[in-house]
Amino acid sequence: MTVNPSICRLLxxxxxxxxxxxxxxxxxxxxxxxxxxASGLFSAIVPAFxxxxxxxxxVVAVGTGQAIDIARRGDADVLxxxxxxxxxxxxxxxxxxxxxDVMFNDFVLIGPTSDPAKARxxxxxxxxxxxxxxxAPFISRGDKSGTHAAERRYWRAAGVGVKGSWLRECGCGMxxxxxxxxxxxxxxxxxxxxxxxxxxxxxxxxxxxGDRALFNPYGVIVVNPAKHPQTNVKDGQAFADWxxxxxxxxxxxxxxxxxxxxxxxxxx
Length: 268
Known about the structure:
The chain has eleven helices and twelve strands. The chain has helices at 5-25, 34-38, 41-53, 64-72, 84-92, 124-133, 146-158, 174-184, 192-197, 233-243, 246-253, and strands spanning 27-33, 56-62, 78-81, 96-112, 138-140, 167-169, 187-191, 204-208, 215-223, 256-257, 260-261, 264-265.
C-alpha cells in the first residue's frame, strides 16, 4: 500500500493534537481556598489523586467567596471550600450537584506573645471583646473568604461593631494576613493548618483556641453541568469520590507539619 507523503508529514502534528485533547479531557479545575493551598495540603494529596486516577488537577486558590463565584460562572469543575452556608446556597440554587463533607480543622486567634489586650483563653467571643475594648490592632482578611465570613460571625456574636482604626482590612489571603499581623504585632483569625505551616511567626502566638465555635468544616461540590455543560463533570465527580473515599481520607490524615495533623477527614 502506498502512503501519501503529505499524510506522513502531518501525522506527528495530528498525534500531538490528539494527545493534547486527551490530556485536556483528563484535567479538572478545582476552585479552592488559600488556606488549603497555603497549608501545603494540595502538594500532598493532588499527586496521590493523579497517580490513582490519571486525572490532572489545576488548582485556583482564592478566598471561598471568590472560589464560589468562579464555579458559579462555570470556570471550575469542582469546589473545595469552607463556608457551609454559602456552599448549601450554591447547591440549592442549582449550581452544584451535591455537597459532601470532606474534612475539618479549627480556627485559632493569633496575637502578640505579650497579649496587650489580655485576650488569652478558650473563649473566642470574650477574646474579641477584649481586643476591641483595648483598640488593639486586628488584621481582617476582608476578602469574603470562609475565614472572613467566620470572623464576621464571631464579631456579630460578640456584639462588637467592626469599625475603627484598630481594625485593618487587608483584602488578602491567609498567608499575607498573617505576614501583616506579624509585621504590625496585631491580632488575626487564622485556620490552624495555615498557621502551623506559616514560616514568619515572629512574635505571634496562639492566644485563643479550643472553643467549639471555632470548628471549621470543609465541603466538596461538583459543578452542575445543567448550568454549565462545558464543565468536566465526570472527572470532577471522580475527584469528589476519591477525596471522600478511604484513600483520599488517608491522604488528608497523612498531611502533617512535624507531628501535627492539619486536617481531619469526616467524609460519611
